[in-house]
Please model this.
Amino acid sequence: MKHSSTPLKLTALGLILLPLVSIGLRYHYNDMESNPWEDSSRYKVSYRFTLHGEGPYTVQSFIPGNDQRQQIQLLGDTSFQKGNSYFSEDNHVSEWMGNSNGEQDILLQFESITKSVKYIIGDEIAFIPGPSLQEPTDLIQHEAVEIKTVADSLARGETRYDQTLEKVFKYVHSIPGKRTSELTSALKTLREREASCNGKSRLFVAICRSMGMNARMAGGLILESTTKRTSHAWAEVKVAQQWVPMDAYNGHFASIPSNYLKIYNGDHFLITRKGKQHFDYQYDIEQLEINALSNMALFNIKSLVSKAGIPFNLLRALLMLPLGALLVALFKNIIGLKSFGVFLPVLIAIAFTETGFLQGVAFFSLVVGLVSLLSHPLNQWGVQHTPKIVVMLTAVVIASLVSVQLMHLLGVANTNLSLFFPIIVLTLTAEKFAQKTDEEGFKEAFVLYGQTLLVTSFCYLVVASNSIFQLMITFPEVLLSIAGVSLLLGKWIGLRVLEYRRFKFNSQNSLSHV
Amino acid sequence: MFKKIKQIKNEFLGINQRNVECIYPNNPKKHYRLADNKVLTKKVLSTHGIQTPETYGIIEHIGQIDHIWEQVSVHEKLVIKPAMGRGGSGIMILSRKGTDWFNAGSPINTDNIFSHIANIVFGLYSFADEDCAIIERCIIPHHFFSELYPAGVPDIRVITFHSEAVMAMLRMPTKQSNGKANLHQGGLGIGVNMESGSLLEAYDGKTYRSTHPDSGIQIVDKILPSWKEIKELAVRTSRHFPLKYLGIDIVVDNDLGPEVIEINIRPGLGIQLANKQGLKSLLKLKNIAA
Model:
């Protein structure tokens, strides 16, 4: 009996093409704000200032500008709402002046789209120490002996710009942070070895300046759906005509997350004012949907997330599961690499996104090692399969608890890390490993372990990719295409890559033999 | 380089094609159990008068052990094996001298034999909830084989496709394979000329050799005993199963001649290496005929 493969091919083609058509239509009928695969975010920000008391006043603040990574659109119609705006140095200043008769509200609103950016500093850029290019200030005292001493010791022997910057960054990053917005100078930060974001950033700028680098302060808001009063400050270093962001407080080297809104350049305050009134302020921030391309979307996952409150990690795991499984299938049927189960490498990869890749690999190896240690005596004693697995799982759970405790004591891992999922996944792996050891022996099981690790690493690259996740969450119809591709793969009858190697030796021989 | 790749591609059957074009269309899943469970396999075989080692007893529950053991222990040699075991695990070969039993030369008491049977019934060797223990006649390999290498039981794997014997391989145990004849356990795979039954070079997983690695005795060009009967037995067997792509394992007993010991629904592809020949063209010819 021979089955016709035409219905299958048509189904597969339909599954692959339909989502592409849908994506095309949605792309066409929506106003694209930015690329769907980019990690970007959209917020509505409101500055709310209130003056209590009578008399003349002046309030100044900054309005963020447009650049490659952020786009701003001011809201509000009246000129009072926008303030009297002018440019000062690199910054866009808004100023409100008037005479208050008791209570005066000022409301400035804008929408922003911000992207995450990572800079790569070329290793060919040389570091040549030189005299400072800028004048010291009261808060950035880069000519102070203490700062010069630190800068000199950090710069000693360095010839590359990237490595020097990394050293300075690590030094400042290692200083404990304090969650306040209190004004701290560079020198004070160095002396007290504890500081807020502005103190650490000033110290970073001071050390850079002291080495002859061109560095400056930058300020803005970390955007999240909340009402807050704290602004944020970080540093920027000019590398090859480009200002590169450095946040030694939150640990972003040459990169800036998508929810950072830059409002001004230089060492300023976000608000300055004149007047005798009592002054109150807050920033209302609200996240808006981005890249949902919601027109014509049959299934809008982004709104589902915000409305139903599905945990983001869960959604990520769900959306990435089929794609990861397809990757495993490709590795198996086209290359010939085997792995523990079909879903296990994907699940392990997802678990790795929670534990971190290296810790995950270490944990995974620990589990496999433990199981192989235990399986020898258990087999020797002739313990049956199912109870044996229970013994092994128990051991894995105990080992997991001990290592979590150890990591906590050593301070290596974040303690509020969700380890529940990784532990479940790894115990499942332990079962598969034990079964393989029983069926085919240690050697085969270890080969399989190695191949699983390889496949898992590739899955990790896909599962941990933010761009792919952004794409999946915007266009969930891609899931159908994955099913379509899998259908075709299921009917593919070519030799697996590793089979070529298996039969290679033989075919050479057969030539001489015949 | 490119030519070689093309040659491999044209000649050899890979796992993907084996699954999609040989197994799925020819071996319906509902009949898998006829191959996976040796009790059922032997039932089909004996119904149609196909030679298979005589079954002395089948133990399905632990309660039957005492009773059945009493019946079977009259035999001087016997084999205990799980009905659904894989890769030769759980097989125990016993011989009796007077009232004492021996397992591979060393004495064994009946308590140990009983607990082995109980383990089989509990599914220890089959990754299932329960299994049956088959107690059957112990094969004495034809002297042709014991002259090549005295230990273990060699068997002949014949691939049948729509009731035609397509390719065959003699599987010989070695010191390294510990009495087992499977290729991936260190046994030898020796290609067989389908017409004459003469042996080709022995493949040990890495290289080809003309002699047995342990005994040093010449293998190449020796002719298998009862080759015609073996081939005929394979074809006859395949006719009585609703499974049209099979690997049939046959042993040659010194007294009783060829007997079928088991059938496989997913026969391995290493047989192509043993024969230095791809299955693809052989099966394709059959495909067109069918």
